[in-house]
Design brief:
Distance between the termini: 52 Å
Strand content: 15-25%
CATH architecture: 3-Layer(aba) Sandwich
Oligomer: single chain
Structural class: alpha/beta
CATH class: Alpha Beta
Bound molecules: thiamine diphosphate, magnesium ion
Radius of gyration: 19 Å
Helix content: 25-40%
Order of helices and strands: HHEEHEHHEHEHEHEHEHHH
């Protein structure tokens, strides 16, 4: 475990020194090691962005696709290979902007996928334009007068849609973040974690200090099965920001809801000889 962590941490990255992505990577590597998952048992799907570079910097199976489009590819693997741990990891722009439509339909389907969103409240890779979660006060090169759209609250959205597992975490609480990742991976169904993460280069509002002053852990007696209480908790954002499992519900997964998928064995393990599929190429010849 220590060796693996050391190996991951020594990799060269394109992330800025001090980037919150380092904490997320450390928490993810530790979570996988503590769950006794080896690299070949896990596949990480991402889109485009700084957050989406994660599969380049961690030793697991990986699919790095188009901006906002990690979820459909992940769902494909979920159907074909029920034994694989499928994790989607991407930025706030990727997930709530370009990929917003996939997010909402994925919640409806409830596939067994863990989704870790690096929410730095900005488009980092493209040098600091506002994202759906940016605050009004954030001024950028293309929004010099601040952001004019209401900020999107992903946790409130996911709870309102009764996603089967909705959590918020923060890189300022790394041990707690690791526990949230483990809980999401162990959850049967779609598990969304919105992870608050500073962008030290382009977001001068939501800094480490800004998050540290506001973030607090849910009370011991908080009940994530209570939907009405969860809605209220999810709406909390400002002076105080709750972290933890905000809502959780056991419900049938995508595979379980579709009879022939439920019964089917692992498609990914089926051996297909290339010669058997020659007929597919015939019409192009
Ligand atoms: C369809 C499409 N639109 C826009 C872009 C340009 N683009 C690449 S990354 C990015 C923003 C990424 O922001 P986010 O997902 O929050 O990740 P971060 O870099 O902040 O980690 C944008 C707009 C693109 N590659 N494809
Ligand atoms: Mg971002």
């Amino acid at each position: 475990m220590t060796d693996l962590l050391q190996y991951e941490m020594n990799r060269e990255t394109a992330w800025c020194p001090g980037c919150g992505n380092f904490s997320i990577r450390r928490a993810l590597v530790k979570a996988l090691a503590e769950l006794d998952l080896s690299p070949e048992q896990v596949t990480l799907f991402t889109g485009i962005g700084q957050a989406a570079k994660m599969p380049h910097y961690i030793r697991v199976n990986a699919f790095n696709g188009l901006h906002g489009r990690a979820l459909p590819a992940a769902l494909g693997m979920r159907i074909a290979n029920p034994d694989m741990k499928v994790i989607v990891e991407s930025g706030d722009g990727d997930t709530y902007g370009e990929g917003g439509n996939h997010l909402l339909h994925n919640i409806r389907r409830n596939p067994d996928i863990s989704h870790l969103v690096h929410n730095n409240q900005i488009y980092g890779l493209t040098k600091g334009q506002a994202s759906p979660t940016s605050e009004y006060v954030l001024k950028t090169a293309v929004q010099p007068g601040g952001v004019k759209s209401d900020p999107f609250n992903p946790v409130l959205f996911a709870v309102a849609m009764k996603a089967s597992f909705v959590a918020r975490a923060s890189v300022t609480e790394e041990e707690h973040l690791k526990e949230m990742i483990k809980a999401a991976i162990n959850h049967k169904g779609y598990a969304l974690i919105d992870i608050l993460q500073p962008c030290v280069t382009f977001n001068r509002i939501n800094t480490y200090q800004w998050y540290s002053e506001r973030v607090y852990k849910l009370e011991e007696d908080y009940n994530p099965a209570d939907w009405t209480a969860a809605l209220k908790k999810a709406a909390e954002w400002g002076e105080r920001i709750p972290i933890g499992i905000i809502y959780k519900e056991e419900k049938a997964t995508f595979r379980e809801k579709i009879g022939h998928l439920k019964e089917s064995k692992i498609l990914a393990g089926k051996r297909v000889e290339p010669a058997e599929r020659e007929y597919l190429l015939d019409e192009f010849r």
